[in-house]
Design brief:
alpha/beta, Arc Repressor Mutant, subunit A, D-Maltodextrin-Binding Protein, domain 2, 7-stranded mixed beta sheet, two-stranded antiparallel sheet, 12 helices
Length: 287
């Protein structure tokens, strides 16, 4: 049954029998045959079939969630405690601000513990990385916590809280953030990102109308524009951008708790390498 479960995971990850077969070296017919045998062994249908397409149903998703645990146990039977002898590729999705901080610090320990592992760090926006993780294209991701719940089977662990502040040019004498945000040229944190959407909701709640003339997801670029005297911006005070914050003034928003929560997301049934990296990320988080 191990072979069938591995094929089931491949189908869920790559979307179709044909795509899964191409990745694991089987024909579409062989994949289909394995899935039928698995359904017969389990005594239940795992796919809703229409024409040439097959989609995991509720039963299939339940089996898929358990399959990860079983496969991880099977892979660890040879030497469950010694990661230093295991080989593989760990695919980590990470928003930019975590790559030079949390990820960098965690990778130092991971390389010492798992020297034969190859690590691939994939940048992106939080929502995109969560979608790729849910699709099986990533093994774990460091992202901003979404306002909505996570997809089933994924587990969240908080690593850091970054409060939002209003950044103003160092020569401006602004002291009240509301007046400054409403009267100065506004540089907007992109609404395509989770953090930018938080800022938009906050401004709406505070009933503050801004005159934004530039919008981008690159926080260092926003802070550089502020330092040049081109406007003000509400941005998260992240340790990754300490150098850029040193060139601007910051005003408190007088809103305790308003910030972005940074955390690590991984499947609940993740293998040992993922579990090790998650723990290292937790240790790398600021105290």
């Amino acid at each position: 049954m191990i072979a069938e479960l591995k094929t089931l995971v491949a189908v869920a990850r790559h979307g179709t029998f044909a795509a899964a077969g191409a990745r694991i070296g089987l024909t579409q017919a062989a994949v289909s045959g394995q899935m039928k045998r698995l359904e017969e062994k389990l005594g239940q249908r795992l796919f809703d079939r229409t024409g040439r397409s097959a989609t995991l149903n509720d039963a299939g998703r339940r089996v898929l969630a358990r399959a990860g645990e079983l496969l991880a146990l099977a892979d660890s039977l040879a030497d469950p405690a010694d990661l230093s002898r295991q080989r593989g590729c760990l695919r980590i999705g990470a928003i930019v601000s975590t790559q030079t901080t949390l990820v960098r610090r965690a990778l130092d320990g991971f390389h010492k513990m798992c020297p034969d592992y190859r690590v691939q760090v994939i940048p992106g926006l939080s929502l995109d990385l969560l979608d790729r993780l849910d699709a099986g294209e990533l093994d774990m991701a460091l992202v901003i916590r979404p306002a909505v719940g996570l997809p089933p089977g994924l587990r969240w662990q908080t690593l850091a809280h970054e409060p939002f502040v209003l950044a103003v040019p160092p020569k401006w004498r602004d002291t009240d953030w509301r007046t400054s945000a409403a009267s100065r040229p506004f540089l907007r944190y992109s609404r395509h990102s989770l953090g930018g959407r938080q800022v938009e909701r906050f401004l709406e709640q505070e009933r503050i109308s801004v005159s934004d003339w530039a919008e981008m997801d690159d926080i260092p670029a926003l802070l550089a524009l502020v330092a040049d005297g081109l406007g003000v911006a509400i941005v998260p005070q992240s340790e990754a951008y300490a150098e850029y914050f040193s060139k601007v003034r910051t005003l408190s928003l007088d809103a305790p708790g308003f910030g972005r929560e940074i955390g690590v997301v991984a499947p609940a049934s993740a293998d040992d390498a993922v579990g090790t990296m998650v723990q290292l990320c937790r240790r790398a988080a600021p105290s």
